[in-house]
Automatic annotation (TrEMBL):
InterPro entries in the record: NAD(P)-bd_dom_sf, Sc_DH/Rdtase_CS, SDR_fam
GO MF entry, a single one: oxidoreductase activity, acting on the CH-OH group of donors, NAD or NADP as acceptor
Keyword field contains Oxidoreductase: yes
Protein name as it appears in the record: Short chain dehydrogenase
Keyword terms of this UniProt record: Oxidoreductase
Gene3D superfamilies registered for this protein in UniProt: NAD(P)-binding Rossmann-like Domain
Assigned protein family: Belongs to the short-chain dehydrogenases/reductases (SDR) family.
Length: 246
């Protein structure tokens, strides 16, 4: 068994699951953390990792994750997150905004707090926060999500400043359009037609593995190399609103 350990949150699907697989290929023992036990147990069995059921918005659940990880951790990928709804500010649902802030910002903060001592103890820890192009721009209907992802970005920057004298890198990988099984489906509350429309005509959107590959690259740089932020979009997406569709 590898002595290097990585925790990936939101590991039950999409970018999280792909990242867990990729880091396992890089030789890490991966702790797959997510709410859906069946999915992470299957993934952990596939990659020789461990499954820990965890809701990043629950302090008790996060404490149990830290307990399961133990005193030393090399890599934390704060991937759990997501968008809910696409409503204009004038009609936005505060509950949806609260849930997005909860998972994309508070969840990341709680998991980071809980695992930071173990990352420091490794002597060369790495935190990769999965941000978004939504953390850099604004778009109509997106304010609840863009505000949360701007939060992810700013928390990442702040943490890097606060840990400047600690042996922990703090990085952000910020994807644009990634076609995953669930991101848009969750955003549109299970409406497959609306979810599919997001990627309509885009010959090659990014897929989860593209982002996992970028995360693994960030993680596997030498420990003194901190990739502060890496923005990754499909070639067809020159900017948030400028997408080549055929
Ligand atoms: C996903 C990118 O375009 O849906 O984080 O905001 S977008």
């Amino acid at each position: 068994m590898s002595t290097r350990t990585a925790v990936v949150t939101g590991a039950s699907s999409g970018i999280g699951a792909a990242t867990a697989r990729h880091l396992a290929r890089e030789g890490y023992t991966v702790v797959c953390a997510a709410r859906r036990a069946d999915r992470i147990e299957a993934l952990a069995a596939e990659i020789g990792g461990r499954a820990v059921v965890c809701d990043v918005t629950s302090p008790a659940s996060v404490a149990a994750l830290a307990e399961a990880v133990g005193p030393r951790l090399d890599v934390l990928v704060n991937n759990a997150g997501g968008a809910i709804g696409l409503g204009a500010v004038a009609e936005a649902d505060p509950d949806q905004w609260r849930r997005m802030y909860d998972v994309n910002v508070l969840g990341l903060m709680q998991v980071t707090q809980a695992l930071l001592p173990a990352l420091v103890a490794s002597g060369a820890g790495t935190i990769v926060n999965v941000g978004s192009t939504a953390g850099r721009i604004a778009y109509e209907g997106g304010a609840g999500y863009t505000a949360a992802k701007h939060g992810t970005k700013v928390v990442t920057e702040t943490l890097r400043l606060e840990l400047f004298d600690q042996p922990v890198r703090v990085c952000e990988v910020a994807p644009g359009m990634v076609r995953t099984e669930e991101f848009s489906l969750v955003r549109f509350d299970g409406d497959q037609e609306r979810a599919d429309a997001v990627y309509a005509g885009v010959a090659e959107p990014l897929v989860a593995e593209d982002v996992a590959d970028a995360i693994a690259w960030v993680v596997t740089r030498p420990p003194h190399v901190n990739i502060d932020e890496l923005v990754i979009k499909p070639r067809a997406q020159a900017a948030q609103h400028k997408v080549h569709r055929v």
